[in-house]
Amino acid sequence: MRHSGASAVRPCCASISSVELCGWLAGPAGIADPAALDSELARIRTEYNTTRLHAAIGYVTPDDEHHGRGPQIRRARHAGMRRARAERIKQNRASKK
Q1: Which of 50, 57, 79, 96 has the maximum number of C-beta atoms within 10 A of its C-beta?
Q2: How far is 92 from 97, CA to CA, in rounded Å?
Q3: Tens digit of pLDDT for each residue in 13-72?
Q4: Is 27 helix (H, G, I), strand (E, B) or coil?
Q5: Residue 62: what pLDDT?
Q6: Which of 5-9, 46-50, 89-93 has the lowest mean pLDDT?
Q7: Residue 1 contacts by C-beta under 8 Å, 6 or more apart in sequence?
Q8: What is the rounded distance in angstroms from the CA atom of residue 53 to the CA atom of residue 56?
Q9: Are 60 and 66 in contact (CB under 8 A)?
Q10: What is the phi/psi pair of residue 60, to 5°?
Q11: Among the listed residues 41, 77, 40, 38, the one whose alpha carbon sits nearest the alpha carbon of residue 57
């Protein structure tokens, strides 16, 4: 595999396509049964899109972003972090008295 310039995507950071994932799972020591392979691909795809938080879209799931919940989740997270910071400052100031 040859990479050149800034447009090249490192293999460790590339998205996993179904074809690549299928090849990886069905490798020499992988899943040989096509029905089991389909089932495992569906499970991984579901987990990837509904459970895993993605940095590129603000640490929400692709499902949340697709259904319009991403901005609300990011706003709530930001508000929670502001509250936590204010509480830490308040506790630190109280402990210095």
Answers
A1: 57
A2: 9
A3: 445 556 556 666 655 557 788 888 888 889 999 999 999 999 999 999 999 999 999 999
A4: coil
A5: 95
A6: 5-9
A7: 11
A8: 9
A9: no
A10: -125, 170
A11: 77
- E strand or H helix that includes residue 16: none
pLDDT of 51: 93
DSSP labels for 42-90?
Answer: HHHHHHHHHTS-BGGGTSB-HHHHHTT-HHHHHHHHHHHHHHHHHHHHH
How many Cα atoms occupy the beta-carbon half-sphere of 63 within 13 Å?
Answer: 9
Sign, CA torsion 31/35/39/42:
positive
What residue segments make up the domains of the chain, in order of their start? 1-52, 55-97
